[in-house]
Amino acid sequence: MPSNLISVLASPSHPGNIGAVARSLKTMGLSSCRLVSPDDYPSPIASARASGALDILNGASLYESFDDAIADCRIVVGTSARLRSLAYPHVTPRQIAPLLIDEAEKGRVAICYGREECGLLNEQLARCHYHIEIPANPQYSSLNLGSAVQVMSYELRLACLERQGRSGIESKDSWPPTYDLERFGCESWDEEPATAREVDGLIEHFERATAHSGFLDPKNPMLGMARLRRLFNRARVDRVEINILRGILNSIEKMDPPTNQQTVQENYGLTNGERDDV
């Protein structure tokens, strides 16, 4: 993440929120924070809330005025959930994030957050090139300071990763697999996919039927049902397929249980002390 992305907290009132902001920044790979006249800082409360991100907290710079904190920044944006009498460019975090990543390659960028109870003041917002609104629930749109910083920092990270052509989730294998239905001669599937509840019912039915047949030892089930669930999730079974499988299981449950049940290790094909623990 560009080091020129600077989070500016204007007069934060609670030290715990400052610590929470430090954690939010670090989890998204950001490191620069400026504090404008905080009410209580340094503070052990801030340090406690910044657990694991003390390097970000201790590296924060203190400023006496908002103007001083943004003076060396080429672009300044501010979060605001309020409508103003004077119109300014109003954007969401996702809309503005790519522009901020681009600008950060050329110079310092300030992302400003206001005091907890009132947000940025009108005169502070007037110094911002863009006003950012997080599209929250209109009936309750007030976010905690740490939460607002987390949302904005997340969008900045996504924009940065997209610019690099990365997803941010590193894996040695190509996972999860993607399925191109057109490749197999159909543009859409002919049945609705099974719901989570329907898959749960199938797994429970498998557990009953396999216990009845002697395949599964209920006292030592190991990972059999978990592996079946993973199989069905990977296959994205549909409702008709669920019904077919449950019909087969119903027929198994109608059979008499075996008199001599094999051990679960034999049923799973495990020999010589092998275990299914991975």
Present the secondary structure layout.
Layout: E1 5-10, H1 15-27, E2 32-36, H2 44-49, H3 54-58, E3 61-63, H4 66-70, E4 75-79, E5 90-91, H5 93-104, E6 109-113, H6 122-125, E7 130-132, H7 145-163, H8 196-213, H9 224-235, H10 239-253, H11 264-267
Parallel strand pairs: 1-2, 1-6, 2-3, 4-6, 4-7, 5-7
Helix pairs in contact: 1-7, 5-7, 8-9, 8-10
What can you see in these coordinates?
By secondary structure, this protein is an alpha/beta fold. The chain folds into 2 domains: 5-163, SPOUT methyltransferase, trefoil knot domain (Alpha/beta knot); 171-278, Helicase, Ruva Protein, domain 3, CATH 1.10.8.590. 41% of the residues lie in helices and 10% in strands. It is built from 11 helices and 7 strands. The protein has helices spanning 15-27, 44-49, 54-58, 66-70, 93-104, 122-125, 145-163, 196-213, 224-235, 239-253, 264-267; strands at residues 5-10, 32-36, 61-63, 75-79, 90-91, 109-113, 130-132. Helix 1 packs parallel to helix 7 and helix 5 packs across helix 7. The protein is elongated and about 85 Å long. It starts with a strand and ends in an 11-residue tail after the last helix.
